[in-house]
Amino acid sequence: MDYTTLQETRRTLHQIPELGFQEIKTQAYLLQKVERMKKRHVEVKQWRTGILVKVSGKNPIRTIGFRADIDGLPIHEATGLEFESMHKGNMHACGHDFHMTIALGVLERLINQPIDDDVVFIFQPAEEGPGGALPFLQSSEWKQWNPDVIFALHIAPELPVGTVSSRAGLLFANTSELFVHFKGKGGHAAYPHLTKDMVVTASSFVTQLQQIVSRKMDPLQSAVISIGKISGGFVQNVIAEEARIEGTIRTLKAPVIDDIKQNIEQMAKGFEISADCSISIDYGSNYYQVFNDANLVKRFKSTVEAIGVQYQEAGPAMTGEDFGYMLKEIPGFMFWLGVDSGYGLHHAKLNPKEEALQVGVDVVESTLRRL
Ligand SMILES: CC(=O)N[C@@H](CCC[C@H](N)C(=O)O)C(=O)O
Fold first, then answer.
1. Burial per residue of 132-151, b for 16 or more beta-carbon CB atoms within 10 angstroms, e otherwise
2. What is the three-class DSSP state of 371?
3. pLDDT for residue 299
4. Structure confidence at residue 102 (pLDDT)
5. CA distance 360 to 81
6. Residues of the chain with pLDDT under 70
7. Does residue 79's CB lie within 6 angstroms of at least one atom of ligand 1?
8. pLDDT of residue 276
9. CB contact at 8 A, 371 and 296
């Protein structure tokens, strides 16, 4: 694929972001692209809304996996780009349009010039939620084409184009979603004493959550609790009977997340008594940390430097990735690809530089050839 085709592909995908396990148009588009480049040594499988493409090698000893996630986020795009999302309320604000395009670009090169080993491209749904990797690992499709080694990339808005970044060991955090539902008693805004106001209760719960991190956790054990959504009530002069908060918990060590959950549950019991309400907690999906294989990262670094791409040592990040589950099963790694955007991941104005597509294709292809 030349640069113009990469750009067109990315723009088409950018216009059709779909949420986890709803990637119907995305899957159809990917299948159509693959069908056009397919040759005799290429096999395709579908898994739910994802697809897998296997390119047989010339003299295979191993199977190498490259995973690209394919879902978008429920964000209203505000880039004003001519190719902005046609699915209002959804956006590729985490760069999965880039991830897919790069995978397609590399796929085409590999089909035309296979390596010795077999390569499986995994276009995986639902990374942002509820998580596609874990159910995929239990599927017959994974068992049939189970790679011996695997890698993936994620765009990095804060890094310049022409730079990649990674590290041996822990790259991304352990995560757990957090959904808390509050039920009290509604009523007239003029008579708060006759109600159990869940907007007030949920608001103080959000504030108190931050004290779990700052007062209950060992400061040397990094943790984050972020609430991204709060809802409750219907109108300005009625006290809300119900409220709900939605957020995420992140830690660098897996057991610390359990300590946080215990603290949240204890705090909820206190709120039930003091606010005279009932509270239910659901942890949604949980992702295992992304832990990179040290030897593979070392080889990756020398590969990218050999093709003139800058390598920067990364620090651990509080981002989560269900790719961590794949790395728990087989050796591999994830790396950041610099895309230089003034706005970060999950921002409605995220606008990665498209020149990074070519760098991504070159880096992934070279890695496959030298891994
Ligand atoms: C790379 C990235 O941004 N990943 C997401 C993963 C979300 C996991 C889950 N839905 C949660 O919020 O805990 C992230 O937000 O880090």
1. bbbbbbeeebbeebebebbb
2. coil
3. 98
4. 98
5. 22
6. none
7. no
8. 98
9. yes
Does 3.40.350.10 match the CATH number of domain 174-286? Answer: no
- Global pTM reads 0.95
CA 26, CA 103: separation in Å to the nearest integer?
14
Please tell me the predicted confidence (pLDDT) of residue 46: 98
**Which of 337, 202, 331, 341 shows the shortest CA–CA distance to 278?**
202
CB 314 within 8 A of CB 166: yes
Topology match between the domains 3-172+289-370 and 174-286: no
Give residue limits of the domains in the chain.
3-172+289-370, 174-286
Tell whether ligand 1 has an atom less than 6 A from the beta carbon of residue 325: no
Residue bearing the CA closest to ligand 1, atom 3: 319
Residues 166 and 338 sit within 8 Å (Cβ to Cβ): no
Whether 69 sits among the annotated catalytic residues: the reply is yes
pLDDT of residue 77: 98
128 given a catalytic annotation = yes
Q: What is the CATH number of domain 3-172+289-370?
A: 3.40.630.10
CA dist., res. 149 & res. 297, Å (int): 12
